[in-house]
Amino acid sequence: MLDLEQVLESGLRQAEAGWNMGSFGAIAEFHHVGNEAPPQPAARLTQMTQRGGVRIERLEGVRPVAYETLGPRPHRWSQAVALCLPTADAMMHRRDTLTELGADDVALRDEDRGAFLFDMGLAQPQVDFCIRTSDPALLEILRENEGRSLMEQGNPAMGAILKAHPHRVALTRLGRVEVYQMIGGPDTGGTSPEGPHTHVLPKLLRAGRTHSANTPIPEGWVPCAGFHPESPVSGPVGEDKEFNRDAFDGFQSLLQAWGPPDYQEAKRQCWAALENGDEPGTSSEPTSRTGRAGLRNGLRQWRRLHGDSALLDRWSADFDASTVSEETDDENPGH
After folding, report:
1. How far apart are CA 38 and CA 41, in angstroms?
2. pLDDT tens per residue, range 193-211
């Protein structure tokens, strides 16, 4: 039986692992970049760099859900472990206006503990999405507009935030992710900076969902943090890379322990059929969204594991001929 804390501690030492906290439309991500020193956890379940940091503060009651999602490219997939809590335990404050929370006395770094936290008022179920600053000019504007929605027409606070680039701090019942880098936008050439960054996407926020429909979270549970072990097929900035069998095998053990049964069964049946040389017409497509993803990713992974073949091409033509938009990851903008 896998020990969750040991898995996460090991993950914090993986240079290509990623972490996030947030909701569907407001998310803070922590990643290393290539020129940084190999990660060494700063404390229990804590990791920091000059660009950001993550701290997992609670594991009691957590249900890990390991899953693979379809990538938009036909040779790719992504993998993650969602750390979930029951819905009632996961809920945060859901403030809908800009609200000062006081000094951040438990910031990851000592030098940030005199700065002030403001909840941005995004009213998200499982995350209080905040900014943190000690900039007198920004503090004045934020305090003048406290109690107003940042999305309100004519509110100068949002423009001031985008100009000042304060720290962003995502708080959940499981801990926090902090991002010290600039906010992606005009000052960064319209793209998110490499490494830790945030996304706040009003269109997705309006959906009122806790997570992407492509994430197979069991009913009654809410993801409060995400761990993304090193991908076997793509690099830190989304580039293709040579297939990493060790990374693949390492995640399969997590998937076996914590993954959706229908996904695993669909992939198992797919691999067994290919091993036996069965034609695609002998199998039917799974009826569940998760099962269909298992079949399609099974085909992609078989190609990486065993190479091309005419039989595999026929299977792919029947079941994975094109990218189906509603079954690819819609919560990973900019990657």
Report:
1. 10
2. 889 999 999 999 988 899 9
